[in-house]
Amino acid sequence: MSKQAGLDERGNILDGLENRTVAVIGDLMLDRYLRGDIDRISPEAPVPVVQRRSEWHVPGGAANVARNLASLGARVHVVGVTGADEARGLLIDALGQHGTVSDDGILVDTGRPTTQKLRIMSAHQQIARVDVEEIAPLAADLEGRLIAAAARAIEAA
């Protein structure tokens, strides 16, 4: 393989990513984590009560792939759909912390939330997961805009 294929002279693909442009197209989500302690069971139902100790969030799904590629030195064009909500802002901010990520291809659908996966954890174990997402198909006009954004990102890669 040659450098043009993204490999360095030793054939290492990771070193060959630096200063390459990559298109990442897919489901964008915000992975959220809530960690706490469980000291009792709820008197209302037989479920554990989690006393919150910390919370954090990171890009998930295709956004996680984009973050990882950017942290390896690639210039990344992300294409996907989010809602017009706080989670969108958190996701875009988180992507910007890991390298060169273009969010021009992240389209907004005001009729759906940004996909989120909240994992509730205690004692190094996931207790529950709460999903916020809309799985209905995209409107035809948004789908067309998404396809056009994907084509532009692929052309730039």
Account of the 3D structure:
Helix 1 runs parallel beside helix 2. The model has no long low-confidence stretch (mean pLDDT 91). A hairpin with a 6-residue loop joins strand 2 and strand 3. The radius of gyration is 19 Å and the shape is flat. It has 157 residues and is an alpha/beta fold. The protein has three helices and seven strands. The strands form two sheets. A four-stranded mixed beta sheet has the order 3-2-6-7. Strands 1-4-5 form a three-stranded parallel beta sheet.
Helix/strand layout:
Layout: E1 21-25, E2 28-41, E3 48-61, H1 62-71, E4 75-82, H2 86-96, E5 101-108, E6 115-122, E7 125-132, H3 140-156
Parallel strand pairs: 1-4, 2-6, 4-5
Antiparallel strand pairs: 2-3, 6-7
State the secondary-structure class: alpha/beta
* Rounded mean pLDDT score: 91
Helix content: 10-25%
Distance between the termini: 18 Å
- Runs in which pLDDT lies below 50 for 5 or more consecutive residues are none
Beta percentage is 35-45%
Q: What quaternary form is this? A: single chain
What gross morphology would you assign?
A: flat
Could you describe the largest sheet, including whether it forms a barrel? 4 strands, mixed
Report Rg. 19 Å
Total beta-strand segments: 7
Q: How many helical stretches?
A: 3
Q: What order do the helices and strands follow?
A: EEEHEHEEEH
Order of strands in the sheet with most strands: 3-2-6-7
